[in-house]
């Protein structure tokens, strides 16, 4: 049984038994979809870490929920930096993290991201994209990622100036069902240490 | 409240408030399920000349026909093989292979497991590769199984709380249309197919599997424990022979409830399922 299109009733329309059965059938269809197995997030524990490189282990989501939750912990050593990337964009950065570091990030509210620099203004220096680390500005409801360091002016006004696309790119939001990579970049102040990324998952509740 | 089976309506039946309320509760149940936490597939970059030696394995309880995978290599390969077996290593089968892959490669595709794997059975999955020379890298980016050959994307839709009814209420088209809005929204969130992700095997000491409880049955391999990270709940020991998948009834854990976060420690794999 597939999900059936539900007709929109108009004023004075008849609530037929067929319409009611479609509602219930669709609810049952979705119930079966939701019944899937519940797999875990496997934690990552690493000894003798100096810099945890992002590529060795990573997480791929079929995007479903807007809140990204994660926990990073150091069993030894002092964390210098924790950066988290999702969909090739830095969604969180902390240059003086405590431990355990328990964080939630709204993937759909770019104004809460670490690199958000506010609404675009002219005569301002913006830093370029380095591994997804560039500054993000908003203009007319659209978010832009700086791809080349520059001082802002009329010709580079995002979405408007004749040269805007040479220094900005539009930040696209993850879409439901899309496949996105999430990874961590962690460094310690000195020496080799013990690091744990306990979990990372998407949640619907902030 | 659990999802309720409702008998189909027939022509001429009286539309009662209790039926409409049960329908409302079902719709809310479905939407609540659609909001459950979403765990990732854990990928891996492996730096070696022959990854079968690294014992990087994933486990999955097979349910869906098409096993999707996305694998990348940057260096010339001698061969690459995608394999499956039962957890104890028996019944091995090659799901896909390329014996002459050549240079850089990027496989983002699927394999049809119809007639190859048995639905409901646990399998071990791994990649067997060898580079032409030296130590190189392979990225196991993604694996998941579903009932279609492609995973679609959807745009979010708004949710509306379905109405509650009392005897004698007028059934307005506005209220009835709230069901449609709610169901369509839940469908957008859930998609049109069940899908299933393999779990990476634990190869290191102290590694855990983090859950938010949804189902009654915990499937696992090994000797381990179920831990409440808050420290409030008593730790529960679970045991096994280290080879076969064992099923544990989470109803036996006093502090367990739907949505509770917990950790399974010291096991090779762990996964919750709706069936024992």
Which keywords apply here?
heterodimer, A: 206 residues, mainly beta, 5-stranded antiparallel sheet, 4-stranded antiparallel sheet, 1 helix, flat, B: 276 residues, 17 strands, 13% helix, 36% strand
What this model shows, in words?
The complex is a heterodimer of chains A (206) and B (276). In chain A, a hairpin with a 2-residue loop joins β11 and β12 (142-146). In chain A, strands 3, 4, 6, 7 and 15 form a 5-stranded antiparallel beta sheet that branches. Chain A has a 4-stranded antiparallel beta sheet with strand order 2-16-5-8, with no helix packed on it. By secondary structure, chain A is mostly beta strands. Chain A has 1 helix and 16 strands. Helix content of chain A is 9%, strand content 42%. Chain B has helices at 17-34, 173-190, and strands at residues 41-48, 58-61, 66-73, 77-85, 93-98, 105-112, 122-131, 136-146, 195-196, 199-200, 208-212, 217-221, 224-227, 236-238, 246-249, 261-265, 269-273. In chain B, strands 1, 3, 6, 8 and 9 form a 5-stranded antiparallel beta sheet that branches. Chain B has a 5-stranded antiparallel beta sheet with strand order 5-4-7-2-10, with no helix packed on it. In chain B, strands 11-16-13-14 form a 4-stranded antiparallel beta sheet, with no helix packed on it. In chain B, α1 (17-34) packs parallel to α2 (173-190). Classes of the chains: A mainly beta (206), B mainly beta (276). Chains A and B meet through α1, β1, β4, β15 and β16 of A and α1, β1, β8, α2 and β9 of B.
